[in-house]
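Sharing a chain and its predicted structure for anyone who wants a worked example. Both blocks are below, sequence first, tokens second.
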Amino acid sequence: MWVEIICGFVIYKLVHRFFHDDEIFDDETSGSTALFSAAHRLEKLYGGKAYVGLRIPDADTASRQDIELVLLTKE
């Protein structure tokens, strides 16, 4: 049993070392950190600029609407 645990840990560390990319995956999983990471990744994939946490006025309801993520590109 201990051999299986140790081998599993070693295999996990090897896979993590060779296939883990800090720019793609973030170990922190809080809501805002994940949202900013997604925005950063979208900027890299599609170009343009990503805006997070926008509040825009809504004329119909006379209040503000929250938009979590907006990606602006040249297209």
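Comments welcome. Strands lie at 49-58, 63-72.
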